[in-house]
Design goal:
single chain; five-stranded mixed sheet; PH-domain like; PH domain-containing protein; membrane; 2 domains; four-stranded antiparallel sheet; transmembrane helix; transmembrane
């Protein structure tokens, strides 16, 4: 129970920090010479719908309470506060994905999924990086099949990272050993791969 509470608190803090970063244009720090890449395009329409519906709900509930319970001002106030909180929470959820981006830089490749997953992969552990779009049958964000780990966005991956030797990855549900390939989604996989290969000295298009 305590661990669940801690997880909820971490989520809440992360969402508000991400909302602050997005609102005031405070991107996550990167090393010199690095570039970041987004991965939210597959889920952007769904997030947009939830945000719009949350905004409409605030108005609809307020009008309903004003009409049917005009004397219950305290209830309208509570509903308004909860509605605004819910709307900001949904925007914060989107901001959490938007601000925690993949990073390609001189020291290696950083693969992210919101604040819950960050994998730092040094270049000397990577054999090659290639663009390859896949649709996964399972809906889990993090999946393993054999020695391959996939970090999907709406069941999609678009970039393959092949390691020189099996590695251990620290994932949200625990450590995964013996991983020879990592697959993840990026909105611009070709650009990410091309930039990554400037550090790998691997110009061959797979």
């Amino acid at each position: 129970m305590i661990e669940l509470v801690r997880k909820v608190v971490r989520w809440e803090i992360a969402l508000w920090v991400s909302l602050y970063r997005l609102t005031f244009r405070r991107p996550m720090p990167m090393e010199p010479g690095a570039r970041d890449f987004g991965y939210v395009r597959p889920v952007a329409p769904v997030l947009g719908v939830f945000i719009v519906v949350s905004a409409i709900d605030i108005v609809a509930v307020d009008l309903a309470l004003r009409h049917f319970l005009p004397d219950w001002e305290w209830l309208r106030t509570v509903a308004l506060v909860l509605g605004v909180w819910g709307l900001l929470w949904m925007i914060g959820l989107a901001a959490n994905l938007v601000t925690h981006r993949h990073v390609v830089g001189p020291s290696g490749l950083r693969v992210r999924n919101s604040h819950t997953l960050t994998l730092d992969l040094p270049w000397d552990t990577i054999e090659t990086v290639r663009a390859h779009s896949r649709y996964l049958m399972e809906s889990d964000t993090v999946q393993r099949a054999g020695d391959v780990v996939s970090i999907a966005m709406s069941s999609l991956t678009a970039v393959d990272v092949v390691f020189r030797a099996p590695v251990t990855l620290d994932l949200p549900k625990g450590r995964e050993e013996g991983v020879t390939e990592l697959r993840f989604h990026a909105d611009r996989p070709d650009e990410l791969v091309a930039f990554a290969r400037t550090f790998l000295n691997d110009p061959v298009i797979a």
